[in-house]
Amino acid sequence: TQGNYDSRQTIGKEMSALGLKPLGVDGSFEWMVDGTAVPGCEHGIANMIGYVKGTEDPDEYLMWVAHLDGPNNQGPSAASLGNNVTDDSYDDVGSVAVGLSLAQALAKDPPRLSV
User: What is the pLDDT of residue 79?
Assistant: First the structure.
């Protein structure tokens, strides 16, 4: 949806402001999920991906994952792409808030490994 797309743009700006390095397509924080741009979901589904470079072993990574928006929130035509119970805002915004808070803390005091 347009709201999902707008949210991704806002989250990307926040990730950049925190000093994260992008790992998405074309130097962005967005990694598009192939085949998800469908009627009712023209912007498709994307993962937001960035990292804080580690201080001692920067080529070793610890990955923390969460979701911004499940397929059910993308519109009725995209519901078949996954779980149909990911449709409440607490679920979505909680993942984003925890992820950005974790990124902020890690950016201030980078860990040994990249995260």
Answer: 52
Report the C-alpha gap between 41 and 37 in whole angstroms: 6
> Could you report the average pLDDT of every consecutive run of 10 residues in the chain (115 residues)?
83 94 91 83 84 96 76 51 53 79 94 96
d(CA 113, CA 59): 7
What does the alpha-carbon distance between residue 23 and residue 27 come to, in Å, rounded to a whole number?
7
Specify the pLDDT at position 90. 57
Separation of alpha carbons 73 and 89, rounded Å: 10
